[in-house]
């Protein structure tokens, strides 16, 4: 999509007093979970803000740093700072606690160790205006009820980076509790890792699988129709496990629930027996 505002694309043209928000899609959002990115845009536009999508954005470099390659993501960090450092962009928002954590913490480490003065300045500028979605809604916009409607039983998994690095706390739960029609149920041992951890799941497959089994057991114990979270990566891991056992419980990004309304609902897939 072109760099210019996507507001007209999503049906809003009069913004009056809105913020100009740069939307970062993330790698998983771009390649596997575009609906979470679209839902983020729809939600922000519905709340009256001007959403722009810098078309040359790429990976934030998190996977490189997490795997021990801190010099290699310098071009990615520089590109991110250039794309989102535009002074006309008031805030940078992404549907991912792990990517927001990378921009706010890891980019500074990379710039200090392997960058130049220009990169360090650019990283500092973007860091100061970068937010995970629930942070932006609650802390910046002061919004807790975003006008969502989602008549399903839902449980929430707090992802590790959002919980421990960003410390988003109960912001996502505050937003979910205000959703019309929702039956929000507490997830047992909610703060336990799901076992994904990026390359951790590949390098430590047995441990990752055992952690996933525990997480799925707790999700299924709630009787929820949907397990939601703020990171598509964790939902990919949990959802993959649930689909392999045909549990019937779906995974859905927080943004998709918050973007759902009575007039434009987010529909769950039909049960296999009904197809």
Automatic annotation (TrEMBL):
User: Domain Cysteine-rich, which positions?
Assistant: 21-103, 154-238
Task: Fetch the Pfam families from UniProt.
Answer: CCG (PF02754)
- UniProt cross-references to InterPro entries, sorted A to Z: Cys_rich_dom
The name under which this protein is listed is (Fe-S)-binding protein
Q: Which organism is it from?
A: Streptomyces cuspidosporus
